[in-house]
Design goal:
Elements (H helix, E strand, L loop, with lengths): L2 H9 L1 H23 L6 H27 L7 H10 L5 E2 L2 E10 L6 H19 L5 H8 L3 H4 L4 E6 L5 H9 L9 E2 L3 E11 L2 E2 L2 H31 L6 H16 L1
Antiparallel strand pairs: 1-6, 2-3, 2-5, 4-5
Length: about 260
């Protein structure tokens, strides 16, 4: 456990009891496995050895990385420098709030069936424009797009660049709150309603500082891990050759086929 988890468990008597009981169950099960000679199983023995090797490798890597990374990495200057050099990464693109009432076309839909769906959509649009029906209520009752139907037709705040062409052009031509004519896509017929359009926005450093810190730490960890791997291979080389690899491959392939 890390220090935070440890303090949480020790502060709660019931939680502490649950943790200890869980550990007792684990130990009892391990004892039962040993009593039934599971450690003599070659596959189990291999997995245990490999698990121990993985733990040792990660502990070694983490210890070396921790010793090589400065405690204050990344510094405020490094974060600011990354931000200035990569401002293009921190632009929130144009987005738009979109609602839809949707009617699916089936794989076998022909022109007649599609025309009937459009006629149905025209009738709904007429009632909406006359104020006889509420958009969200119709979406809840009739829309065939499961995710947005449950939200009264609300699709979310969508990037305009992600909208399919059949929808993008019509939705951007609408005024805020305006309802579209029936729009046909490959999937079906859409009745769209446009919400507010949010223009592209360049984020400021305080908004992305934590994100940059995490990114720089991740990059440094990856670079250090690769350097440690390369150094280990130089100091403790493993004898590999194309002939040896092919021999192993064929042996394993033959064994698998048996």
């Amino acid at each position: 456990m890390n220090q935070q988890e440890r303090e949480k468990v020790l502060a709660d008597q019931e939680l502490f009891k649950q943790v200890i009981e869980s550990e007792a169950n684990n130990r009892s099960t391990v004892s039962a496995a040993i009593a039934n000679n599971l450690v003599e199983d070659r596959n189990v023995e291999f997995l245990m050895r490999r698990g121990a090797e993985n733990i040792m490798r990660e502990a070694y890597l983490n210890r070396l990385i921790s010793s090589k990374l400065p405690k204050d990495f990344p510094s405020d200057e490094q974060v600011a420098e990354y931000f200035e050099s990569n401002k293009g990464q921190f632009i929130v693109p144009e987005r738009v709030h979109v609602w839809q009432i949707f009617f699916k076309k089936t794989d076998s839909s022909d022109k007649k069936e599609t025309a009937e769906l459009k006629k149905k959509a025209d009738g709904i649009i007429s009632e909406l424009n006359k104020g006889k029906k509420d958009y969200s209520n119709i979406a809840l009752a009739q829309s065939e797009h499961e995710q947005s139907r449950a939200l009264g037709g609300y699709m979310g705040l969508l990037k305009t660049s992600d909208l399919i062409p059949e929808i993008k052009e019509p939705i951007l031509k609408l005024k805020e709150g305006e309802i579209s004519k029936p729009i046909e896509s490959q999937a079906g017929i859409h009745i769209l309603k446009r919400g507010k359009i949010l223009k592209p926005e360049t984020l400021e450093l305080p908004q992305v500082e934590q994100q940059i810190r995490q990114l720089l730490i991740k990059q440094a960890n990856t670079q250090l891990r690769n350097a440690i791997f390369n150094q280990a291979r130089k100091e403790y080389p493993q004898a590999l050759s194309d002939n040896k690899l092919e021999e192993w491959r064929l042996r394993l392939k033959t064994k698998t086929a048996q």
